[in-house]
Amino acid sequence: MTLRTLIKISVMSVLVLSKTFDQALAAPTKALVCIGSYSKADKESIHLFQLNLNDGSINKIGAIGGLINPSFLKIHQNGKFLYAVNEVGDFQGKKSGGVTAFSLDVKNGKITKLNQQPSGDTHPCHLTIDSKGKYVLVAHYGGGSTTVLPIMDNGHIGQVTSKIKHKGSSVHPRQKAPHAHAIHVGPNNKFAFAPDLGLDKVLIFEFDENSGNIKETKFYGAEVAPGSGPRHFGFHPNGKFAYVINEISQTITSFSYKPKRGKLRSIQTLSTVPHPVKGNSTAEILVHPNGKFLYGSNRGHNSIAMFRINEKKGILTSIGHEPIRGEIPRNFGIDPTGQFLLAAGQRSNNVNVFRINLDTGRLKFTGHSVKVSQPVCVRMILQN
Question: CA 29 → CA 32, 172, 355, 371, 379, distances in Å?
Fold first, then answer.
């Protein structure tokens, strides 16, 4: 082999390695969007779209039917499975809602039903997965309870293995009984947090990551002001702070968090609207992946409330409100890269795409919108 040939081979090898390295470093260009909805069994119910992460354009690539009210979704951490609640009061002949498991083909944008189980109580409205990916935890608005179902190695779900029935009431006419509205597992996977609209509390349970059992803590939960109606909840990426959006009082309460004991301490409450709005109620709350911003949705004011987070103290400062260009934003999602927010208008039957300014946190409508019948939940995962 001549020196000239060796040099030629070496140059080609460098070029190939350089190209491979550049591809590895290339920013993601697309995300799979999964949208849950209120639907009948003979209609499309979970809708699949592809989001272009360069310009925010969005295109439908599929849907699945045969389900009743797969309203809230959760994508498994391994990207191979998707889980949905069936928000009903009767399921498979039992007084219960349901949970449906799917296999998820992220690359090709397809889902396939694996199995279903009764959720353990009526009208489940929210679910999550513990950080080890072994259990689905479900919140039931109708029955006022939290349940746990195991996840098998093949993605199927088993029967309910643990359940806590919430107890109590509060001062508002909608608070005569417990109404569990969400469930989250804390950063260390040792505690579960359940905002209950009927109790004006974020209930705190001990969670056994090995058995999946949940049990009440001695202090039971963190209180918010009477008549607030806590709905959805989320942690700051640093694990030091948490936030709950209060549906009835149209406010957000900020908490400091002590992970060793699982305790929350209220540090601030502020309004989600610039002025009182008759008939308004809040819905979703999300902390931006970069930890600098927080967003909450207003149904009636039909806006996304935007806040800057003081990352040392956890307190919020309002940076304005962005109209969703639709009605009743029951839910919204932020793509994993943090560039886009997708707002779901339940009454206007549309999902609109907003670009997030990563310096200011403000939203700007991209002009991209898709029609979806009664969208209720937006979840995303990168496709490349």
Answer: 11, 47, 14, 23, 17
User: Whole-angstrom Cα distance, residue 197 to residue 214?
Assistant: 20
What Å distances lie between residue 27 and 22, 45, 339, 379, 383, CA to CA? 10, 31, 12, 20, 11
Q: What is the phi-psi region of residue 84: left when phi exceeds 0, alpha when psi lies from -120 to 50, beta otherwise? A: beta
Give me the mean pLDDT over the 107-123 stretch.
98
Q: What is the largest CA-CA distance in the chain?
A: 89
In a domain, 19, yes or no: no
Angle made by CA atoms 171, 175, 179, in degrees to the nearest 5: 145
- What was the pLDDT predicted at 218? 87
Task: Tell me whether residue 17 is in a domain.
Answer: no
Integer Cα distance of 37 and 47 in angstroms = 8
Tell me the C-alpha to C-alpha distance, in Å, between residue 377 and each of 9, 109, 125, 266, 349: 53, 17, 10, 28, 12
Number of domains in the chain: 1
Contact 266, 255 (CB under 8 A): yes
SS3 199: coil
Q: What are phi and psi of 360, to 5 degrees?
A: -105, -20
For residue 63, how many other CB atoms are within 10 A of its CB?
17
SS (H, E, C) 32-97: EEEEEECCCCCCEEEEEEEEECCCCCEEEEEEEECCCCCCCEEECCCCCEEEEEECCCCECCECCC
CATH of the domain at 266: 2.130.10.10
66, 44 contact by CB (below 8 A): no
Report residue 151 as tokens.
Answer: 């996840």
**What rounded mean pLDDT belongs to the chain?**
94
For 189, what's the count of Cα atoms within 13 Å in the CB-facing half-sphere? 13
Residue 358 pLDDT more than 90? yes
- pLDDT, tens digit (0-9, with 9 covering 90-100), for 245-294: 999 999 999 999 999 999 999 999 999 999 989 999 999 999 999 999 99
DSSP assignments along 91-127, one per residue:
BTTBSS-EEEEEEEETTTTEEEEEEEEE-SSS-EEEE
Domain that holds residue 319: 31-382
Three-state DSSP state, 343: strand
Q: Which pair of tokens denotes residue 271? A: 């309004």
